Amino acid sequence: MKIYTGGGDRGKSSLFSGERITKSDDRIEAYGDVDELNSTLGALVAGLPAQQSRSIEEIHRIQSDLFHIGSWLATTPGAANIAMLQAINENHIKFLESAIDRMDKELPALSGFILPGGHMTAARAHVARAVCRRTERHVVKLFETFSGNPLPEFLQLLLTYLNRLSDYLFVLARYCNKSMGIQDTPWKP
Fold first, then answer.
1. pLDDT (tens digit per residue) in 158-188
2. How far from the centroid of its chain's Cα atoms is residue 138's Cα?
3. Domain map (residue ranges) of the chain
4. Half-sphere exposure in the Cβ direction for 178 (13 Å, CA)
5. Could you tell me the fold of the domain covering 12-183?
């Protein structure tokens, strides 16, 4: 199978559910952001030392979750192949919350805002957090175009997951700094 097909040469792309849509569509924007977030997490993992194996394993699990999220975003609601997709559920969210709580126990309390940065791994986690927030905004925008209110529970959980993931990435950035012996830099207004 060739990597290039030429199918997108005229500004259209195929959804997982088979429809062809313009590459400027909100759906493409949303799952493109998920792809960028996943790649950003890959860059973060590439810089993590082997001693942070737990964080590496967590991020790999998150990357897998993001593939599932991208599949949902690339599938038209009601499409025949929707049954084969794995939904984000409460267990995925609890996984993130448990990881946040575990790392947070080891961190000093925050008394104000901090500047993104510090060690390279912390800086990459902050970039991933910002990409995650943009992803969340674009997914919300996409979901606003869906007919029928309220959102089905599995789509609401997808939004909750992205929101919690950005929290995880913020705490992970602080955790990376602490692990590398670097203090967070407080914001001085």
1. 999 999 999 999 999 999 999 999 999 999 9
2. 12
3. 12-183
4. 13
5. Hypothetical Protein Ta1238; Chain: A; (1.20.1200)
